[in-house]
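We give the entry.
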Amino acid sequence: MKNVLFVCTGNTCRSPMAEALFRDLVKERADYQVSSAGVAAAPGMPASKHTAALLKDRGLDLASFQSRMLDQKTLEQATHVFAMSSHHMAAIADEFPAQADKVYLVSEFAAEDALRGRDVSDPFGQGRSAYEETLRSLEKILPSLLAYIDQTWKKNDG
């Protein structure tokens, strides 16, 4: 089972967006679990209104979504952790050094040179167009991320 975790700051904008989009990419795949968390999240918050609205336009429902703080157990359970920015990667490495080897920048495997290795912009506190830009970036990034996981996943001989 591949357990993919997306991490941002407050777990209300970027990481729930990535979670919902990636979950949709793997919806026919029983070998994936997908979740998200924040390095500075207030637990129990809904996804931001623009995140929820943009995803709803794509048929993805975040009505039951609740933000959560990143913790040791969640990180231990994850097989792949994708941070929205280099700042998030550093925060995880500082607080959970034993888990740092499975943390990647979400854009690390992007097919487009313009996106690869760049932070996903934080639309928090901005208008809908900023959220649309973040969504477009994630829609371009996530298929190559899925391909990376599928190509590198070590099958359990069990």
Q: What stands out?
A: Helices lie at 14-25, 49-57, 72-77, 86-95, 128-152. The first helix runs from residue 14 to 25. The longest strand covers residues 2-8. The chain has a mean pLDDT of 95.
